[in-house]
């Protein structure tokens, strides 16, 4: 079966009617359909599927065991995301297993294909939720209290999916099973296009995090309240968007994005009482990421004071920069005959796991350079090249 055929099946689930793309979030109905799809595809290949304590799926070729070669990615998406971010790594992993069998290869180590839940944090706000829980990178009790926009907590969602919230958290057994982890992913920029190469190896991930800023003012009537009498939290929120742009422009290599603003209560003729705004900030290292955020936070306080509003800033998640294991990068590039080594501004479960187990990533060329949007793309030929590269790498690691 081709990667394209598997991606075609995945694309039947979770279409977003607003401007195209897909919306599939941890343990929602689209995600549960795809988890069932994965379980069927694994069973079709004779792979035994288990669900770990934190909701990751593991499909085993042979007996489950320690020191395994593990590959996989995620099936959830951002709101209105593309067809490849996540699914490509899962589909390519299944096809790589098919290719290895066609080649008559038998692994000398346990080999598993994994699906990590809620990588994008599209439902509960915390990116790489599954891998953070597995590695203990997030406080379990705090994570279980996270809630989606409908007020459903992670604990409730896990229980609805048949998981026991009491068993969530750092999973030594799962970690000891990963001898090496390789995630294949669509590239989220134009690095491979510029280098004219279908496949590359990931070099590093930017430091990045998410902050929630809450501006509180005075809810009031849009027509009856004189302009001079207002304490409108939308005004500092608007200024904050511009301040974020200015701060990230001033610090080399950094990025700041406000992709989500929620005014409460949210009426056209109502001055909001509060405005929540989420900042995504990234840079090459901890120092510069912290500097960008400090600059934006200072602006937030000044903007709030100017409007007679209050502001609180809450760090919702943070991860320092990751440089993938140099020896493993070189080894895998060598297996593939020498491929480019590229940095990325996107986060991945592989980036979380890298602090605990030997970890590497393969990237597949994306001609549009766009990601987290419907225009994200990889050609069928490049997807197959990615699966062949992954098969080569797995064969080398499990030889
Ligand atoms: O990079 C991100 O926003 C996410 O971790 N995929
Ligand atoms: Mn993503
Ligand atoms: Mn991804
Ligand atoms: Mn009225």
Automatic annotation (TrEMBL):
Belongs to the peptidase M20 family. The keyword Nucleotide-binding does not apply. This is Zn-dependent hydrolase. Its cofactor is Zn(2+). Zn(2+) 1 binds at residues 74, 85, 185. Signal peptide: none annotated. Binds 2 Zn(2+) ions per subunit. Allantoate binds at residues 210, 269, 282. One of its GO terms (molecular function) is metal ion binding. Keywords: Hydrolase, Metal-binding, Zinc. Gene3D superfamilies: 3.30.70.360, Zn peptidases. Zn(2+) 2 binds at residues 85, 120, 372.
